[in-house]
Amino acid sequence: MMFLNSELDPQSRRKAFYFSGIVLAVLLLDLVSKELASRGLPPGEQVPVVGDYFSLLFIENPGVAFGISLGPHGQWVMIALSFLALLALGAMYRTTAESDRRRLLAMALIWGGAIGNMVDRFRSTRGVVDFLVFQYKDWQSPVFNVADVAVTSGAILLALCLWQDESRLALAAPVRERRRDADPTSPTTS
Question: Which pTM value belongs to this model?
Answer without folding.
Answer: 0.82
